């Protein structure tokens, strides 16, 4: 029987993503703080539709806004690992990456009473060490890579990559990769950035983006018997009024198309029941 899954995921970064880029003056900090307002709106909407979702929260945000994070858990949503700071692992030394990874695990454990099931790297940029840390700390899945659009797979580590040589594949792990895409992320579509001499325009028409996102789900329905799509949102982005209306339309349209809404942890469990390691 066909089964098509929609995962609603939220990177609750607030000000941490700006701080990781050196943007620590009052205006970018306040821009990130709006994420707490947006998170409340999102949780109200999800609650009204009876939908569980996955939230990825840096440790510094958990420690800054514990009440907001407690509300995520109280709503039955998944709390995932999103680093301690929002500095990408690829930009950290081995020692600092390991220290920050463990520190974030402890923040999640103190808040929720258990370690995270899944990991999502800040800015979706892993180091060659990251998957080892994910496995070492008992996570069951990662959601930072883009090797498929609608099928999970078992992540590899230890690939050897050079610009002037064929790719040498590393070992398959028991870590399920629940893939993501920038095209299904609200940030590049909507956020305006000006940094130095570079400008990222963003500010797209929400209905045009909605059309793309619905079309991706429709293509998955036509091309697969079992598939999943991960939509990624940032509360300080999607929480603006016209985008909240778009999110509401997305949820309701997907529901009419037969979407099953699951957390990413539920997806990785279902995937493991369908295949054995090494099959994909």
TrEMBL record:
Boundaries of every NodB homology domain copy: 26-280
PROSITE patterns (UniProt xref): NODB (PS51677)
InterPro entries assigned: Glyco_hydro/deAcase_b/a-brl, NODB_dom, PgdA-like
Stored Gene3D superfamilies: Glycoside hydrolase/deacetylase (3.20.20.370)
Pfam families hit by this protein: Polysacc_deac_1
Coiled-coil residue spans: none
Primary role: Is involved in generating a small heat-stable compound (Nod), an acylated oligomer of N-acetylglucosamine, that stimulates mitosis in various plant protoplasts.
Family, similarity comment: Belongs to the polysaccharide deacetylase family.
Protein's UniProt name: Chitooligosaccharide deacetylase
Species this protein is from: Pararoseomonas baculiformis
Lineage of origin: Bacteria, Pseudomonadati, Pseudomonadota, Alphaproteobacteria, Acetobacterales
């Amino acid at each position: 029987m066909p089964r098509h899954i929609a995962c609603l995921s939220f990177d609750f970064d607030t000000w941490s993503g700006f701080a990781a880029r050196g943007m620590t003056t009052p205006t970018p900090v306040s821009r990130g703080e709006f994420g707490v307002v947006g998170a409340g709106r999102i949780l109200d909407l999800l609650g009204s539709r009876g939908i569980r979702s996955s939230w990825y929260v840096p440790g510094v945000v958990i420690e800054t806004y514990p009440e907001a994070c407690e509300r995520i858990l109280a709503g039955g949503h998944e709390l995932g690992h999103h680093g301690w700071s929002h500095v990408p692992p690829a930009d950290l030394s081995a020692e600092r990456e390991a220290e920050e990874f463990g520190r974030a695990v402890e923040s999640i454990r103190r808040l929720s009473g258990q370690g995270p099931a899944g990991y999502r790297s800040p800015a979706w940029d892993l180091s060659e060490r990251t998957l080892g840390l994910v496995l070492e700390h008992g996570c069951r899945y990662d959601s930072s890579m883009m090797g498929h659009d609608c099928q999970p797979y078992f992540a590899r580590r230890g690939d050897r990559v050079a610009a002037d040589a064929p790719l040498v594949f590393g070992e398959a792990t028991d870590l399920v990769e629940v893939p993501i895409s920038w095209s299904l992320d609200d940030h590049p579509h909507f956020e305006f950035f000006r940094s130095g001499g570079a400008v990222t325009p963003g500010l797209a028409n929400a209905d045009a983006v909605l059309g793309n996102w619905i079309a991706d789900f429709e293509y998955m329905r036509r091309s697969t018997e079992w598939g999943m799509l991960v939509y990624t949102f940032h509360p300080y982005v999607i929480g603006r009024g016209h985008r909240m209306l778009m999110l509401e339309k997305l949820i309701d349209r997907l529901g009419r198309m037969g979407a099953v809404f699951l957390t990413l942890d539920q997806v990785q469990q279902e995937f493991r029941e369908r295949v054995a390691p090494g099959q994909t």
